[in-house]
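Fold this sequence, please.
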Amino acid sequence: MKTIDLSNLPSESQPNPALMWLKNLIPSGKAHQADQEAQDQVIFRLERVLGEDFTLIRDIRIPGLGTSIPMVLVGPPGIFVLYATAVKGTFRARGDAWLKLDDGGNMRNASPNLPHRTRLYAEAIRKFLTQNELPNADIEAVLLFSEPEAFVENIKAPIRMVMCDGLESYSGSLRLLNPIFSPEEQTAIERLLSNPEGKPTVTDEIAAAAEEISAQAVIMPSEEPPAPAESVPSAEPDFITEDVMRNAFIEEHPEPAPIPIPPVIEEAVEQAPGLTYPITALLARTHMNSMQITILGVAVLLDFMAICGLLAFVLFAMPR
C-alpha cells in the first residue's frame, strides 16, 4: 500500500460557500494525539495486507471546509473514507445516535458522535468529487477502532464499523472486491485528492518544462560532418622480419671511388721494370686523396733527384 501524507503541506484556500454547511457540522481543528496514534496503528496493519494497487492519503484539506479529513483509501474497488479512533469502553450505535455505557450501567449520548463525524467526512469527499466531475465514485465511510478495549453494539448504524481484532480481515476483504475503477480513473482520483487545491506540484512543473523544451524548434546543422580520411597503407612491412633485424646491425662500407693517378707516378711506374702489382690497388689501400698522392709523388721525385745529384758529386766531383 502506498501512503501520501499531506499533513506538512500549508493551506492557503479561501472559504467555499458550497461547503460552508459541512464546515459547521464537522468539528474543526486537529485530531487529538490519541487519534493520531490510532491512525498510525491502523495504517501499519493495513500495509501488511494491502498491495501497491491501494493508496492511502492522509490529512486531505478540501478548500473551504475548514478542517482536514484524516484518511481516504483509494483502490480498484472504490473509495473508503476511514476514521480511526482510540476510544475505550462499551458503545451502542443506533441509527444516528451514539451512546456510551456509563459507570451506573446506563447508555448515554457520547460526544463526539464518531459515526456521524465519519459520515460527514465521507459526504465531504463525495461532494468534492462531484464538483470535480466525478459524480459516480463509490464511497464508503468506515469507523476503525485501534484499541481492543472498545466494544460496540451496532444497531442499524449508517456506516461500517470495524473492531480492533477485525482490521486484518477487513483489509483482506477489500482485495476480494470486484474492481470498479480503471487504472486511469484511480490515478485521476488519487491526484485530485492529493492536491485538492489544484496547485501545480513539482512533478507537474517538471513535466510542463519538459513539454515546453520539446516543443521548441531544434536547428540541426545543414552540412554533414566530413567523412573520415581513408588510411593510406604504409609501404613498410607491418612487422619486422629476421632479415631486417639482422641487417640493421651490419655496417655498410661502400667501395671507394677510383683515385686518379698523377702523371708523375704513372711515368715512374712505366719506367720501373718488373713491377707487376697493380698500382691502382696499391694506392687504394693508402686511403689518400689525389692531392695527397701528388704531393707525395713530388716529394719522392725530389728526394730521388737529390740522391742522384749526391751520387754524381761523389763519383765525379771528388778528387781521386
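Confidence is low (pLDDT under 50) at residues 19-31, 235-240. The radius of gyration is 58 Å.
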